[in-house]
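User: Show me a protein chain along with its predicted structure.
Assistant: Here is one chain, sequence first, then structure tokens.
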Amino acid sequence: FMFHVVRAREPRRVFSHVSDIQKPILKVLAGGFAVIVMFALPGFFLFGKEANGHFKDFTTAVGTLFALSSFDNYTSLLNSSHLGSFMFFVAFILVNNIFLMSVVLDITINFYTDAERDQLKSERKKEMQGIVKAFSYLDPSNEGIISFRVFKAVMAYLRPDLSTLKLRILYDICGTRCDPQQ
């Protein structure tokens, strides 16, 4: 997303990129919240009666797991001596942080590659329009064929080291390979 903000040439494009990525990001956030809720329910029933109070009710359990998903103050949660609580928290960390992080990266990469593909298509279209315009200057009769005189003048600018004989051979090769009538 940040690449698009930096690369955008005008504010309108920045806002279009932001609005394009909102829906996938909201889906990931909803998935993350669903994982927290799915772990908060068993956490509330398993650890709700412990003295530390991290799971005393459902909303506190959700807040505790949100704090754990951001790795904020997670050491106080893992001080329990129960093997079951340790396995519960490790499973939550693995599912929430590793799995959801890969989903976020996948969405970001897909969005970036789609935007790059669209930008390349736009650049190719502009390039093709430029080629057509340049060819119209080189072919004023609009016959679709460039004369040897024009070809020689263009090639003298692009490759001044080529002799007239080599230019004639190139022109003849292009004429036989590129002629749409053949």
